[in-house]
Amino acid sequence: MNDLIDKQSSVPSYILAVETSCDETSVAVVKDGHVVLSNLISSQVETHKAFGGVVPEVASRKHVEVITLMLEQAIEQSGIRPRDLSAIAVTQGPGLVGALLVGIVAAKTLAMALGKPLIGTHHIAGHIYANRLVRELQYPAMALVVSGGHTELVHLESEGKFKLIGRTRDDAVGEAYDKVARALGCPYPGGPHVDRMASEAEDVVPLPRVWLEAGSYDFSLSGLKSAVLNALNQAKMRGEALEPSAVARGFQEAVVEVLVEKAVRAVREYGSRQLLLCGGVAANRGLRAALQERCAKEGLELVIPPMEYCTDNAAMIGAAAYLKWIRGEGTDFDAKADPGLSLEAWSVQSEA
User: Fold this and answer.
1) Which fold has domain 2-129+310-346?
2) Residue 38 labelled as part of a binding site
3) Residue 11: what pLDDT?
4) Is the preceding peptide bond at 244 cis, omega within 30 degrees of 0?
5) Residue 115 labelled as part of a binding site
C-alpha cells in the first residue's frame, strides 16, 4: 500500500468523475485534485419546470440519454487519452437512487473497460472540496453546507476527516426556499427568484428567527416556512396584499441571520482556520454578501467557490475522490448506490 501511495503522489493523477445524484448529469476530468481539465453539465431544469420540481423517474431517464456522449466529450475536451486516466470516480450517495444508479453503472463499465480503479464518492464531500478547486484548504476548517437537500455544519479536523456538528431537523434551506417561492407565485426553481426579489425589496415583512436550544448547531426551517404562509393567509383574510418582494426579503434575512451566526460561532468554538461555504444555495447572493461582511468584521477567512462549482457538478466529485486516490483507497465493483451514505463514514482511513 505504501508503495502505491508513493507512486500516486509522485506522478500527476487524472481522475474522471461522474455526478448524477439528482437532475444534473455531469462528467469532468480533474488533475491532481484541483486542476479542472473539463467539466460538462447537462441540466434538466427545463424538463422538470413543467412539474414544479424534480420527478425522480424522469431524472433517471434523462441521465441515461446523455451519459455516454458526455463521457466521450469530457475525455476529448480534457486532452487526456482514456488509457492515461488514473481512476474513475462517481457519486455513490446521497441522492435519488435511480439517478445514482445511472452514474454508477456508467462509471463501473468505464473503469472495467479501461482497467482503472473505481472510487465511490460522497456527494457532500464533493460540495465541500469544490472549495479546493479555487484555494488551498487550511485545517481545521468548518464547512457550512447549504443545498436543496442538506443544511449542515461539518467540522474538518484534517484533510478528508468529517464530523457533523449540526444539521437541519426538518426542511433543508433550498427546500424551504422552493416552498416559499411557490407560495409567492415564482416558477421552478424558485430559490434564485426569492434571492432576486429580496435584493430588490424596499420594505420587509418581519419574520421570526429559529435558534433552537442554547448551544445547538442544528437548524429548523419548517416553522419559518409556516410563518411565511401564515403572513400571506392573514393578509388575504384582511383583504390586503403583501408585497412579494417584502416577504422574500423577510424570509431571506431570517434564514441568513441564523446561518451566519451559527457558522461563525462554530468556527470560534472549534478553532477553525477557514469557513467554507458549500452547496447549491452557496450561489445565493444575500447569503454570500452577509457571510463576506461578517467574516471580514470578525477577521475570519471565508472560502466560497465560484458559481459554476456551487451547484452539482462532477469537478467537485473529482476533487473529493482525490482524497481517496492519494491514499490508495478504492471502491469494490459490487458497490451499490447508497441514498443514505454517511459523510462521517466516508471519511478517509489514513494519512496521505
Assistant:
1) Nucleotidyltransferase; domain 5 (3.30.420)
2) no
3) 87
4) no
5) no
